[in-house]
């Protein structure tokens, strides 16, 4: 997505999934040769495509198991039919199995003044940077009211949760089915 998402003064009642779910798509490094990696989406069994990253985007590389940031690199070229991505230089430690996130497409998010009642899942799933959740009332969600956690093993919905402020919210009776 990139850019900024503003969700303001909304009411969500009895939804079947998350009210607001902001995340990127993670791609796995299948091979590394010099400054070229083959990127692949393990969930959907497809190579990295140009809708996920464009030339000039900044990609971040993470250890799949610890989510430790290995570094970032600017994408020089992508071949969307094969998932081949070329960089001027890739960070040390990038190898097969490392997960990539497109930092350029991490949107900032502001959620303010919203009401969530009796939602089956979470109110807000936030996997991005520069997010603010404030002045919301969240009641009776089955899972956590607000979840900030990347998934790099099944859904591959991931971006880091960085620089997130949660303030002045009323959270009641949430996480009761988790």
Number of strands: 18
Strand order of the main beta sheet, please?
Answer: 4-5-9-8-7-10
- Determine Rg (CA atoms, Å): 18 Å
Instruction: Report the β-strand fraction as a percent range.
Output: over 45%
- What kind of sheet is the major sheet? 6 strands, antiparallel, barrel
Query: Which range best describes the helical content: under 10%, 10-25%, 25-40%, 40-55%, 55-70% or over 70%?
Result: under 10%
Please give the count of helices.
0
Listing every helix as H and every strand as E from the N terminus to the C terminus, the arrangement reads EEEEEEEEEEEEEEEEEE
Q: Give the overall form.
A: elongated
Termini separation: 29 Å
Low-confidence segments: none
- Strand-pairing-aware structural class: mainly beta
Structure, explained:
With 178 residues, this protein is mainly β. It is elongated, with a radius of gyration of 18 Å.
Essential attributes:
178 residues, mainly beta, four-stranded parallel sheet, 0% helix, 46% strand
Topology:
Blueprint lengths: L3 E5 L2 E3 L6 E3 L4 E7 L2 E6 L4 E2 L10 E5 L6 E11 L4 E4 L11 E4 L5 E5 L2 E3 L6 E3 L2 E6 L2 E3 L6 E2 L14 E6 L2 E3 L6
Parallel strand pairs: 1-11, 2-12, 3-13, 11-14, 12-15, 13-16, 14-17, 15-18
Antiparallel strand pairs: 4-5, 4-10, 5-6, 5-9, 7-8, 7-10, 8-9
Please sum up the structure shown.
With 178 residues, this protein is an all-beta fold. The protein is built from no helices and 18 strands. Helices cover 0% and strands 46% of the residues.
């Amino acid at each position: 997505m990139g850019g900024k998402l503003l969700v303001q003064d909304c009411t969500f009642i009895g939804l079947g999934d998350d009210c607001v779910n902001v995340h990127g798509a993670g791609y796995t490094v299948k091979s590394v040769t010099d400054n070229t990696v083959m990127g692949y989406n393990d969930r959907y069994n497809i190579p990295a495509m140009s809708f996920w990253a464009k030339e000039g985007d900044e990609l971040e590389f993470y250890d799949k198991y610890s989510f430790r940031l290995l570094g970032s690199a600017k994408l020089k070229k992508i071949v969307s039919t094969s998932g081949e991505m070329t960089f001027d230089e890739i960070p040390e430690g990038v190898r097969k199995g490392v997960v990539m996130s497109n930092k350029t497409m991490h949107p900032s998010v502001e959620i303010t003044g919203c009401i969530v009642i009796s939602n089956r899942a979470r109110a807000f799933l936030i996997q991005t940077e520069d997010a603010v959740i404030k002045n919301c009332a969240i009641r009776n969600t089955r899972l956590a009211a607000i979840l900030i956690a990347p998934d790099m093993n099944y859904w591959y919905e991931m971006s880091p949760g960085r620089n997130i402020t949660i303030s002045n919210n009323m959270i009641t009776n949430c996480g009761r089915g988790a």
